[in-house]
Amino acid sequence: MGEAKSKILIVEDNLDVANMLNAYFHVKGYEVLVANRGEDGVHVCQASHPNLIILDNCLPDINGYEVARSIRGNLHTMDIPIIILCEQNDHPELLHGLKLGADDYISKPFDIQELQLRVDNVLRRSRQDSLNNPVTGLPAGTLVDEQLNECLQHADWTILVVSLKNLNAFCDAYGFVALDDVLRAVSLMVHKAIRDIGSAEDFLGHLDSTVFIIITGQERAASLEARIRERLEQSLDYFYPIKDRDRSATRSKRLLLTIGTLRSSDGPFISLEVLKFFLMRKKR
């Protein structure tokens, strides 16, 4: 099976430019999606999760920086690289875009081969960064796929899917820095539980940026899940500022631990894609 194509989302309202970029990158072997309005770009990004976004600054509804802010503000799209297309005299706005987390930019009119080099470089950096989660340092992306492929070759394994509900509400209230602190704390507590009662063969990594998986033996899974629940559930309130820990009015939107379980006996799982599909369904 060949390597999957990288998926590029082009958000550009100039139809001539959008069609030119679509045709060029399609010929170069990319899967290409196109949106001509900012809001459409946000929706396509959330639905299709591209590997990279080429984003025009000047759009007819909301500008490119509002699009970038929306993408960076969503937990499921926040890590997607963005290259901004801007006018040559747009320097102040360009700095604003870079502060919002754009990965690169190119000024119009641009050389298409230079743009391709920038695309290739950003994707290469993204693939290298995806080997480990930048917040927790745990394996992610390709490293996790390798472990899951090993599961497909063996029996008698169990995978625990550990996640927290209401992360978006927490992030909206306290910001991304506080959210990163939560994810780091969860990773440390799960790692300690594995160290205490797990095995050196157990694997801990990220299914996505906010979801953890533990690959373990069936004989250890139940006790490991119980230990993780014990450690995390008594700690969730401490992720909040003291003044907010006892607010009963917001209990329905508080952080809530969920742990799903997938066993080899639940299969057969015929491919990595099928296995990951069932794992994501365990994210309750």
Topology:
Layout: E1 7-11, H1 15-27, E2 31-35, H2 38-48, E3 52-56, H3 64-72, E4 82-87, H4 91-99, E5 104-108, H5 112-129, H6 142-152, E6 157-165, H7 167-197, E7 203-208, E8 211-217, H8 218-233, E9 256-263, H9 272-281
Parallel strand pairs: 1-2, 1-3, 3-4, 4-5
Antiparallel strand pairs: 6-8, 6-9, 7-8
Q: Structural class of the helices, strands and pairings?
A: alpha/beta
* Number of DSSP helical runs: 9
CATH fold-level name of the largest domain? Alpha-Beta Plaits
Q: How confident is the prediction overall: mean pLDDT?
A: 88
- Categorize the overall geometry: globular
Q: Radius of gyration, Cα only, in angstroms?
A: 21 Å
Q: Please summarize the sheet with the most strands.
A: 5 strands, parallel
Along the chain, the helix and strand elements come as EHEHEHEHEHHEHEEHEH
Instruction: Work out the number of β strands.
Output: 9
CATH superfamily of the largest domain: Reverse transcriptase/Diguanylate cyclase domain
> What is the CA-CA span between the terminal residues?
31 Å
Helix content: 40-55%
Total separate domains: 2
Unreliable segments (pLDDT under 50, ≥5 consecutive)? none
Which CATH class of the largest domain? Alpha Beta
CATH hierarchy: architecture of the largest domain: 2-Layer Sandwich
Give the percentage of residues in beta strands.
15-25%
How would you write the strand order of the largest sheet? 2-1-3-4-5
